[in-house]
C-alpha cells in the first residue's frame, strides 16, 4: 500500500502542504496568517495537478522545432486548470486582504477573536 | 422550436454582460438593468422548461465547436430549468421587497455595485444549475462566493465586515476541498465533463481498482459542498451573515446561494458519481446523521435567540438539515422530497426575512422580541405575511411546508432502516419549529395600549405589500397544487440518470 509513496513523492508533498494550509486557514487567529494558509492550500493543489500532468522525458505543450507528435509533449489540460485556478485564488486573496485592511482600520488588530470580542462590547 | 436550446447559454451570458454594463451606470440605471435582466431570465427559463417538458428529454448545448470529451457543455432538463425559473422569480421578488431598506442602508454612490454583484450572483447560480463540466462548476462556485461576500458587506459596519470575513474563510475551506476532490477525480478518470466522468467511474468500480482514492475524492467534494451550504456543524458563520446584512441580501443568501451548492451536490450524486455508487459508499449515512442533528440543533438555537433576524437565520440551519436528511434516505423519494424542500424553503425563507423587516421597521428598528409586541397591527401586510411564512415553516396544511414534510415522511416510511430516527426527529423538529415561530406570531399579535411607534398602511409602501402578496400566493400555490411540481421533479430526476 505504501510502496508507491516514494515513487509519487510529489503528490505526497502536495497533500502534506494541503493539510498545512488547510489547518492554518482554519485554526490561525491572525487574519494575515489565515490568508497565507489559504495560499499554501491552493498552491498545494496546483502542485498536485502539475505533478499529475507531467510525463517524464517530455516537454511543455508548446510546439517547438515543428515537432507535432503527441508523444513529445506533456498533458496540457492540468496546466490549463492550474492557470484558471491561479486567477481564482489571486482574486480571492485580494478580496480577503481588502477585508482585512477594513477590519484593521476599524479595530486596530488582526486577531479575529479580539475583533469579535470588541464587537460584542459595542453591542452591535 | 429548436432555438430554445440556446436559451440557457444566452441567459448566463446576459447576466455577465449586464454585470459589466452596470459597472458603468448610476445606481438607478443599474437597478433597471437588473430588473430587466431578471424578467428576461424568468421568461427564458420558463421557455426552456416548457420546451423540455414538451420534448420529454434533456438536451446538451456544446459551447464553442469542440465535441464531447474536450469541449465545454451546458445541459438542460426539466429539473434544471425548473430550478432556474424558481431562482429568477425568488431573486426578483426579494430585490423588490428589500429595495427601500437598500436605499436607506447603502450609500448612493455604491448602489450600482450592489446590482453588479447581484448580476454576477445570478450568472453563477444559473451556471451552477446548467453546467455539465466540473471545472466550470468550480470556477462559478468561486464567483458565487465572491459576489455573496460582497452582498453581505454592502451595508458597512463592523458586524457585516466580520461576518463577511467569517463567511469567506468557511467558504474557502469548502471550495479548497471541492477543488482537491475534483482534481483527484480528474486524475482517476481523465475527464472533466460530467457524463464522461460517470462512464469512467462505473468502469473503475466494476474493476474494483482505486476504490480508496475514489471514495476520498467523493468525500472531499461532498464535505466541501456541505461546508459551503452550512450543514449543521459548519454553520457558525451563518447567523451573523444572514442577521446583519441588508434584507435583500439575507433573503437571497438563505434561499438561493446555499441552494445553488446543494443543487450542485445533487448533480454530482446523479450525474458524476452515479446514484447507486454514491449510495454504496455509505457517505449518505453521515449526511443523514448530520442532517438529523442540524434539524434539532438549528431549532434549539433558534428558540434561544432573542433577535428576530438571527432566529430566522438559525431556522435555515434546521431546514438545510431537512434537505440533507432527504439525501441521506438514499431513495428516489427522499431525493424528490429534498428538491421540493429546496423550492419550498426558498419561497418561505425569503418571505420571512422580508416580512420581518417590515415588522422591525414599525418597532423603531429594534429586533428584540419585546419591542415587536403588537407590530402585526402596526404593519398589517407584514404581520399576515409573517404568519403565513411561519405556518408554512411549521408545516400546516395549505402551505408549501406541509407538502415537503409529507414527502419526507413518505420517503422515511419506504426506508425501513432509517424510518424510526427520521420520523422521530421530524416530529421533534416540527414541535420545535412551532415553538419559536408561534411564539413570534403570538408576540406580534399581542395588543399594546399606547405605543410610541407609528403604523404603516398600504399607501406608504405599495411595492412592499405587492411583493409580500406575491410571496404568499407562491407559497399557497406550492402548497395546494403541489402535484404538478412534484411530477416535474420526478421527471427531472429521471432525466438525470
Q: Can you give a write-up of this model?
A:
The complex is a heterodimer of chains A (124) and B (497). Chain A contains five helices and no strands. By secondary structure, chain A is mostly helical. Chain A has one domain (4-122): Helix Hairpins (Orthogonal Bundle), CATH 1.10.287.3510. In chain A, α2 packs antiparallel against α3 and α3 (31-53) packs antiparallel against α4. Chain A is elongated, with a radius of gyration of 20 Å. Chain A starts with a helix and ends with a helix. By secondary structure, chain B is mainly alpha-helical. Chain B has a domain at 282-497. Helix content of chain B is 78%, strand content 2%. Chain B has helices spanning 7-22, 27-55, 78-97, 99-105, 111-130, 134-152, 158-189, 194-207, 211-228, 238-244, 247-273, 275-280, 283-304, 308-329, 332-361, 375-378, 380-394, 400-414, 416-444, 462-480, 482-496, and strands at 59-63, 72-76. Chain B has a two-stranded antiparallel sheet with strand order 1-2. In chain B, α6 runs antiparallel to α11 and α14 packs antiparallel against α19 (416-444). The longest helix of chain B is centred in the middle third of the chain and has 32 residues, at 158-189. Classes of the chains: A mainly alpha (124), B mainly alpha (497). Chain A binds chain B through residues 18, 21-22, 25-26, 31, 34, 38, 41-42, 45, 48-49, 52, 77-78, 81, 84-85, 88, 91-92, 95-96, 99-100, 102-103, 106-107, 112, 115-116, 118-119, 122, 124, and chain B through 135, 139, 142, 145-146, 149, 153, 157-159, 161-162, 164-166, 168-169, 172-173, 176-177, 179-180, 183, 186-187, 192, 244.
Order of helices and strands of chain B: HHEEHHHHHHHHHHHHHHHHHHH
- How would you name the oligomeric state of the polypeptide chains in this document? heterodimer
Tell me, rounded to a whole number, the average pLDDT of chain A.
Answer: 88
CATH architecture annotation of chain A: Orthogonal Bundle
Q: Which two chains form the greatest contact, residue counts included? A: A-B, 37 and 28 residues
Structural class of chain B: mainly alpha
What is the number of helical segments of chain A per DSSP (H or I, 4+ residues)?
5
DSSP strand tally of chain A: 0
Poorly predicted runs of chain B are none
- Give the termini distance of chain A in whole angstroms: 55 Å
Radius of gyration of chain B: 22 Å
Residue runs with pLDDT of under 50 for 5 or more positions of chain A: none
Amino acid at each position: 500500500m505504501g510502496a508507491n509513496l516514494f515513487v509519487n513523492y510529489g503528490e505526497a508533498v502536495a497533500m502534506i502542504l494541503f493539510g498545512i494550509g488547510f489547518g492554518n486557514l482554519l485554526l490561525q487567529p491572525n487574519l494575515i496568517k489565515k490568508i497565507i494558509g489559504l495560499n499554501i492550500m491552493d498552491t498545494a493543489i496546483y502542485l498536485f495537478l502539475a505533478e499529475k500532468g507531467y510525463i517524464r522525458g517530455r516537454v511543455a505543450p508548446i510546439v517547438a522545432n515543428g515537432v507535432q507528435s503527441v508523444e513529445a509533449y506533456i498533458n496540457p489540460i492540468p496546466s490549463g486548470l492550474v492557470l484558471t485556478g491561479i486567477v481564482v485564488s489571486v482574486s480571492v486573496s485580494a478580496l480577503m486582504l481588502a477585508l482585512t485592511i477594513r477590519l484593521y482600520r476599524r479595530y486596530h488588530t488582526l486577531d479575529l477573536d479580539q475583533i469579535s470580542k470588541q464587537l460584542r462590547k459595542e453591542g452591535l | 422550436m429548436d432555438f430554445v436550446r440556446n436559451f440557457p447559454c444566452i441567459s448566463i451570458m446576459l447576466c455577465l454582460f449586464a454585470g459589466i454594463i452596470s459597472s458603468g451606470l448610476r445606481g438607478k440605471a443599474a437597478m433597471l438593468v437588473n430588473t430587466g435582466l431578471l424578467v428576461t431570465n424568468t421568461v427564458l427559463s420558463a421557455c426552456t422548461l416548457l420546451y423540455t417538458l414538451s420534448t420529454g428529454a434533456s438536451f446538451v448545448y456544446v459551447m464553442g465547436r469542440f465535441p464531447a470529451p474536450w469541449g465545454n457543455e451546458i445541459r438542460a432538463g426539466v429539473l434544471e430549468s425548473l430550478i432556474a425559473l424558481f431562482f429568477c422569480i425568488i431573486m426578483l421578488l426579494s430585490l423588490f421587497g428589500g429595495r427601500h431598506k437598500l436605499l436607506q442602508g447603502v450609500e448612493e454612490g455604491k448602489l450600482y455595485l450592489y446590482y453588479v454583484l447581484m448580476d454576477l450572483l445570478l450568472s453563477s447560480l444559473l451556471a451552477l444549475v446548467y453546467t455539465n463540466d466540473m471545472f466550470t462548476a468550480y470556477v462559478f462556485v468561486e464567483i458565487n462566493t465572491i459576489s455573496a461576500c460582497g452582498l453581505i458587506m454592502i451595508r458597512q459596519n463592523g458586524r457585516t465586515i466580520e461576518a463577511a470575513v467569517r463567511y469567506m474563510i468557511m467558504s474557502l475551506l469548502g471550495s479548497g476541498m471541492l477543488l482537491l476532490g475534483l482534481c483527484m477525480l480528474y486524475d482517476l478518470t481523465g475527464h472533466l465533463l460530467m457524463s464522461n466522468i460517470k462512464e469512467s467511474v462505473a468502469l473503475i468500480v466494476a474493476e474494483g481498482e482505486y476504490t480508496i482514492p475514489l471514495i476520498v475524492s467523493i468525500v472531499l467534494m461532498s464535505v466541501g459542498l456541505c461546508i459551503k451550504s452550512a450543514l449543521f456543524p459548519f454553520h457558525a458563520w451563518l447567523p451573523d451573515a444572514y442577521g446583519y446584512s441588508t434584507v435583500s441580501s439575507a433573503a437571497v443568501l438563505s434561499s438561493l446561494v446555499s441552494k445553488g451548492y446543494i443543487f450542485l451536490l445533487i448533480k454530482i450524486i446523479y450525474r458524476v458519481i452515479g446514484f447507486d455508487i454514491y449510495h454504496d459508499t455509505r457517505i449518505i449515512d453521515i449526511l443523514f446523521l448530520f442532517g438529523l442533528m442540524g434539524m434539532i440543533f438549528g431549532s434549539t438555537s433558534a428558540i434561544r435567540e432573542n433577535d428576530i433576524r438571527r432566529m430566522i437565520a438559525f431556522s435555515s440551519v434546521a431546514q438545510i438539515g431537512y434537505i440533507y436528511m432527504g439525501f441521506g434516505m438514499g431513495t428516489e423519494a427522499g431525493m424528490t422530497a429534498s428538491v421540493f424542500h429546496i423550492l419550498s424553503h426558498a419561497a418561505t425563507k425569503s418571505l420571512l426575512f422580508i416580512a420581518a423587516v417590515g415588522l422591525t421597521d414599525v418597532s423603531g428598528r429594534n429586533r428584540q422580541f419585546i419591542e415587536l409586541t403588537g407590530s402585526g397591527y402596526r404593519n398589517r401586510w407584514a404581520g399576515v405575511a409573517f404568519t403565513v411564512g411561519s405556518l408554512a415553516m411549521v408545516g400546516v396544511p395549505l402551505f408549501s411546508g406541509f407538502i415537503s414534510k409529507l414527502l419526507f415522511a413518505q420517503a422515511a416510511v419506504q426506508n425501513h432502516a432509517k424510518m424510526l430516527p427520521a420520523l422521530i426527529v421530524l416530529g421533534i423538529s416540527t414541535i420545535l419549529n412551532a415553538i419559536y415561530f408561534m411564539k413570534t406570531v403570538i408576540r406580534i399579535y399581542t395588543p399594546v395600549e399606547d405605543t410610541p411607534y407609528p403604523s404603516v398602511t398600504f399607501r406608504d409602501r405599495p411595492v412592499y405589500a405587492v411583493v409580500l402578496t406575491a410571496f404568499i400566493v407562491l407559497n399557497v400555490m406550492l402548497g395546494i397544487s403541489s402535484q404538478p411540481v412534484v411530477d416535474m421533479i420526478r421527471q427531472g430526476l429521471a432525466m438525470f440518470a
